Amino acid sequence: MFSDQNFFNYSLLSLYLITPPTIISLLFLTAPYGKHHRPGWGPTIPPPLAWFLMESPTIWLTFLIFPYGNNYHNFRAKILMSPFLLHYCHRTIIYPIRLFFSTHRRKPNTESPSVRKSAAGFPVSVALMAFGFNLLNGYLQSRWVSQYADLEGDEWFWWRFAGGLVVFLSGMYANLWSDNMLMGLKKEGGGYTIPKGGLFELVSCPNYFGEILEWLGWALMTWSWAGFGFFIYTCANLVPRAGANHKWYLDKFGEDYPKNRKAVIPFVF
Prior knowledge:
The chain is mainly α. It has nine helices and two strands. Helix content is 68%, strand content 1%.
């Protein structure tokens, strides 16, 4: 017999089970999009469309699931779900739009092969894998908050929410600022350059560092195995990617690339 609790538990277990294979595979194989684009991964679609489609489950699935939870009318549940939706409204809608315009405002006659490579299609196979993860994760986060979180009996709720929100918003600011800097460089055309200023002086991928901070804040706010699992998976996904980006910068710019920069965690890695 179907049990919602069992389905949730098995889904949560799945999140933890896919994390080790993810980090192991990404240590040896870099996902082929952006500066790492390469042929051999099947058909592609425009990157803005890929980001919109693969991130969208976190929004529409949340709005489908949330009204059917016992916490639906609880103000704490709604305020707790807001940061998650804030991030994904940006990632699903605003980011693809900005990515589209940053790509199409370049002057075609000034584009180098490396710029054209960065604007290449996004592999459908990779987008489908991301879509599947977002289905799983969107379900887990929204279902936990709307149904299984004991919000009324949690005396520390507001303290954890406030502390986690500070971490989350700090990470979101770093993520948005870094994306804005990178998009600005794309608009200029002429090939990849060394990003400078702000957190770029400390790490090669401050956008990834910001996103890691966001989901650390989310884990603190939710104080749940679902939130913690999402944070761990984010690290498993983004830390190897940041390492690959860091190596790419070193290979491309050689002695010109700042030697004191780490890949993603300032002063650590």
